[in-house]
UniProtKB/TrEMBL annotation:
MoaB/Mog domain ranges (all copies): 170-302
Pfam families (UniProt xref): NTP_transf_3 (PF12804)
InterPro entries associated with the record: Bifunc_Mopterin-bd, MoaB/Mog-like_dom_sf, MoaB/Mog_dom, MobA-like_NTP_Trfase, Nucleotide-diphossugar_trans
Name of the protein this chain belongs to: Molybdopterin-binding/glycosyltransferase family 2 protein
Amino acid sequence: MKFGPIAIEEAEGAVLAHATTAGEKRFRKAHRLSAEDISTLKQAGIVQVVAAVLSPDDLGEDAAAQRIAEGMRFSGIEVRPAATGRVNLHAKASGIFTVDAGMIDAINAVDPAITIATLAQHAPVEKGQMVATVKIIPFAVASTLVDTVMGICAGGEIFAVNAYRPARVGVIQTVLPGIKPSVLDKTLRVTEARLARSGGRLTAERRTPHEIAPLAEAAASLARDNDLVVIFGASAMSDFADVVPAAIERAGGTVVRAGMPVDPGNLLVLGTLGGKRIIGAPGCARSPKENGFDWVLDRLVAGLDVTAKDIAGMGVGGLLMEIPTRPQPREPLPARSRLKVAIVLLAAGRSSRMGGPNKLMALFDGKPLVRRTAERALASKASGTIVVTGHQRERVRAALAGLDVTFADNPDFADGLSTSLKAGIAYLPEDTAGAMIVLGDMPGVVSGDLDRLIDAFRRAGGNSVVRASHQGKRGNPVLLPRALFPAIAHLEGDTGARHLVEAEGLDVIDVEIGEGASVDVDTREALEGAGGVLQD
């Protein structure tokens, strides 16, 4: 492949490196130029373009990425169609991700043109979540390089999502004088929530004195009828011969490992009893926050073995402390009501269909449309409003003077909607659970409509896409959960939230808000019909 400036007379079949405008027509980046395109560019006075010219043995970026993805061996994962040189792979079910790091490293060492990125080893994933992505960096790559990668892929399974297997779990809680029943009851609720994410269920509970003999008897009883037994000791393990490990051995079991290099979670005990796994849970497992207990529990219910060597190898990355790395089981409704939703208001477009005037400056009841939209956003339940500017950015900023909004400038606005989405999402605080994408040109959407979307998002626990609708037809705004933010970073061109929702396969909740969901003002006639007055 050759890349660089090329005379327009020689550019037929070449792939544009940058978006190019010729009169009223705009050619997107990565567009392959036809004879008709060359004629249009010549008429506009363009004498050369920066482009890529493919050799006969080159594979286009999409074809190369698709071939590599389809040549991999994996399980529990589906391949999405190639776009802009990228193929994303998603989990078919919730489970634990495993990967052959050596194969990934070998592929990435073939040539910088070919890359593959994955989640971390043993990362927990939800159904539909992206677990890996293949990306071709240039517009094309030599087929010989792809052949080399295919040879590596033939060496075995490269990664997998090990689906959770709904487990029957028995729980034992030992008791000492002074321990409150409310603590024991809360421990059960937290444990049930942990099991729920994998489809497991708590089948029985025993409460015994914190002594070896009664604990051993209860453990042997529960192991007969359950897939897994979890022991919550009233007192933390202080020695490898303490009550919990000693009771496992008294019951006829074996202690695989006592203690783990994960904090919180140091005092976990793992054993086997009657062919079943038994876990002495550390005290931190009474809390919903992630700890070493989650790592062991999730692997076991995903059908993966956990050995003493495995636990010994958890030290790197095992300093968890207060770092939230995945969705946690939480107390039911109060936490949901506090989920933060921010609004990303898109105000960077050129209003090209208006034929000149900026529609966002049109007056509605004497006020610029963009200001009225921003005021409605600020009056909603949203935690904050990010305004993405681009075309006539200073004019838009002036129209919003005095409002408590954050501006995110998008210098690449002419390259399409995806650039504005990425610019807005980049400004969101770390504790934002969802982003509502609000178009600046929808005069019929009011604060109450935005609140209905936010309420639906919170009721769903912050894990679903919430979309405005009218008479059963999808519309705008759209509220995206945080799980989609990484995927937004991979969007290119004039691709927006609708494409993302369809591609990622998350649950979608449609909320009827009336005609406002479908009324935009892309044309002069539509704007005037909605009551707007265009300004120069």
